Amino acid sequence: MSVWNNFNDAESPAFSLIPKGTLVKIRMIIKPGGYNDPSQGWLHGWATRGDTGAVYLNGEFVVLEGKYARRKLWSLIGLQSAKGPAWSQMGRSFIKGILNSAHALHPDDMSAAAQQGRCIESFGDLDGVVFAGKVDWEKDGYGEDKAVIKVPIMPDHPQYREVMGAMTSASTAVTPAHLVAAAQGADAATNAPSTRPAWAH
Question: d(Cα 193, Cα 113) in Å, to the nearest integer?
Fold first, then answer.
């Protein structure tokens, strides 16, 4: 009998979670949930509304380089919860960290350019963003461990440049010039580099 008809003797798949604390360079993909709330500025269906009424972004994170390249992790980014503001505050902090990491912005940098870099026009601006993150574990709905991304790694972390690699130099070369032009409302923006952040090219 062909081995393609009988899988009893096939090797069991070898799969282990990415270890806790591993730093990875990742691309975030938002899986649209079709939920809009114009009063909140949530448009174009990026948000998801769960059965409990909680609203979140459904994030898929793809490891881009290294030992775990092409592995995927999933995490929810809280936007609103009937239980109180804590979940949305965590979500806002997480997105702020993503923007700091993606744009190579020091978390204490409050310059006009840095503040502009922490603003988005829509959640679509986060779809495809590349940043550095730290792997953690949490329990899934079946009580099993799963790997997630909860903490973005920012430029003040000693391993940030090592994790981001060439992306760091690309980000610092392109993004700040654009952000400075935007913050100043400069006519010189016509002579500035591409207005798309480095991770969007």
Answer: 14
